[in-house]
Amino acid sequence: MKSMAPTRETVIIPDVHQNHRFVDKVLERHDLGSLHRLIFLGDFFDSKEPFFAHREALEATLQRILKLVCELGDRMLILLGNHDVLYYFNREEGALDAVARNALHSYYGLPNRESLAVAASMELAPMWERVQLAHLEQGYLLTHAGVTSEFWSKRRSFEQNVAHLNHSMTGLLDAQGQLAPVFRAGFSRGGDALRGGPLWLDWNQEFTEEIGIPQIVGHTVGSGFRQQGRSYCLDARQQGYGVLQAGQLSWVAV
Fold first, then answer.
1. Which of 16, 75, 127, 155 sees the fewest Cβ atoms within 10 Å?
2. 88-106 pLDDT per residue, tens
């Protein structure tokens, strides 16, 4: 009898925050050629540690991401994080009209001028073209922060819901000219929504498994790998990452 080929791994890297060394530690453990997929859960910008809070660290991080895009092509996926939003929508000078720009900046604040200059000085189009809001992988829903029933319809299939979420990225404003709900935060994060959307949902106070599919998220920083039911939060201050193989998620410390 022929032996079955081993299921290839999907590596899932949580919030980077300009820590390019974290990315290197993860990737040195894997053969990129054999990976099924490499997924980043977002938040490349805005360092959480003084050691990486400078333009050189951001440049090094973005250069690594661009190199990975070149090497992996369609096997590379980036999920938009709340710390990436300002830079994603300011990626092209003049792309936002005054109403959209004011709505975005009034909610998220102004982008860091040095970080914006770094992003503008680099050819980031190949990276931005890989950005999505949601992705299905081996029976899990992956987003930056998580999804609740406000953004998920039981009348749609899982695939249709994911397509709907990804399409919502194209509409920064709602019909009233306000920032669309998918970009807003909940009360627990200082926002104005009952619960946050897939960029802001708080794992500790807002996350539930009500939509009927297990999820893998980052966003809510904690001391380690955390689980609720069949769902997982991987944001552990860059102390580890996830490997998904044959529908099973493993935590790997670095």
1. 155
2. 999 988 788 999 999 999 9
The count of other CB atoms within 10 Å of the CB of residue 1 is 3
- Give the tokens for residue 127: 């990276």
Left (φ > 0), alpha (ψ -120 to 50) or beta: where does 46 sit? Answer: left
Between CA 46 and CA 253 the distance in angstroms is 23
Distance CA 91, CA 128 (A): 8
> Which residues neighbour 92 within 8 Å (Cβ) at sequence distance 6 or greater?
none
CB 100, CB 83: distance < 8 Å: no
Span 28-41, pLDDT tens digits: 999 999 999 999 99
Exposure class string for 79-114: b at 16+ Cβ within 10 A, else e: bbbbbbbbbbbbbeeeebeeebeebbeebbeebbee
- Mind listing the pLDDT tens digit for each residue in 163-200? 999 999 999 999 899 999 999 999 999 999 999 999 99
Token pair, residue 32, equals 């990129």
